[in-house]
Design a protein that fits this description.
Alpha-Beta Plaits; four-stranded antiparallel β-sheet; alpha+beta
Length: 79
């Protein structure tokens, strides 16, 4: 079973479109939505296991220029 997570992302002012485009290019990122509220972007990611989710977030998502902060929410059950 794939591990799924929602990554809530805060971006620097005016960088949300640039960050969203960079996220869409990452393998394992299934969807990217620019949203309103306390976060600027919500990305849905899927990987083979939880370790791979962590690796994707820390090695591929965190280094994207324009990202200020992320919160990763692991999905424990899909309906």
């Amino acid at each position: 079973m794939l591990a799924k997570a929602f990554v809530l992302i805060e971006t620097a002012v005016g960088r949300n479109k640039e960050v969203a485009n960079a996220l869409k290019k990452q393998k394992g990122v299934k969807s990217v939505d620019i949203v309103t509220g306390p976060y600027d972007i919500i990305a849905v990611i899927e990987q083979e296991n939880l370790n791979d989710v962590g690796d994707l977030v820390t090695s591929k998502i965190h280094p994207i220029a324009g990202i200020s902060r992320t919160v990763t929410c692991l999905a424990i059950k899909s309906t």
